[in-house]
Every structure is written in C-alpha cells, then in structure tokens.
Amino acid sequence: MSEQPKTRPQVPEGRTSYMITRQKKPNEKGFVGYETIWESWQKVAKYTTPKRP
Predict the structure, then answer these.
(1) pLDDT tens across 6-21, in order?
(2) What residues contact 38, with CB distance under 8 A and at least 6 apart?
(3) 28 to each of 17, 32, 35, 41, 48, how far by Cα in Å?
(4) What is the total count of domains within the chain?
(5) Which of 23, 38, 47, 51 could form a disulfide with 11 if both were Cys (CB 3.0 to 4.6 A apart)?
(6) Is residue 6 part of a domain?
(7) DSSP 17
(8) In this predicted structure, what is the pLDDT of residue 2?
(9) HEC assignment per residue over 32-45
C-alpha cells in the first residue's frame, strides 16, 4: 500500500462575528494546534460615581 503523507493540509482561517481560528505550525512531534482569538461583542461603558444627595 502507499504510505500516508506525514504533513497535514493547510486549513483556511475560520472567521465568525465573534471568533477567529487559525492553524498553528506543526511542532517537532507533528502535532498541529489551533489558535483561537475571541473578540468581545459587549461594549464597556466608563463607570461614573453617582451624585451625592
């Protein structure tokens, strides 16, 4: 039988409205990991102290 290739195919970048995934480079053992980047969809408002009565 023919031997399987030792490299993994390059996966395109995955993108949604709040998350991005990218394929990492293989390490010395051949493990291919994925990097996940979360984008915040909530807005942070500046806190102001309430007025004193």
Answers:
(1) 666 788 888 998 899 9
(2) 18, 19
(3) 33, 10, 18, 37, 52
(4) 1
(5) 23
(6) no
(7) S
(8) 67
(9) CCEEEEECCCCCCC
Count, in order, helices (H) and strands (E) of the chain.
Answer: 0, 3
HSE (side-chain half, CA atoms, 13 Å) at 15: 2
Q: Which amino acid is at 41?
A: W
- Domain span including residue 34: 12-40
Token pair of 7 as six digits: 């490299």
Q: For residue 5, give the nearest of 27, 30, 34, 22 by alpha carbon.
A: 30
State both tokens at 3: 């031997």
Q: Which two tokens stand for residue 6?
A: 């030792």
Rounded to 5°, the CA angle 20-41-15 comes to 20
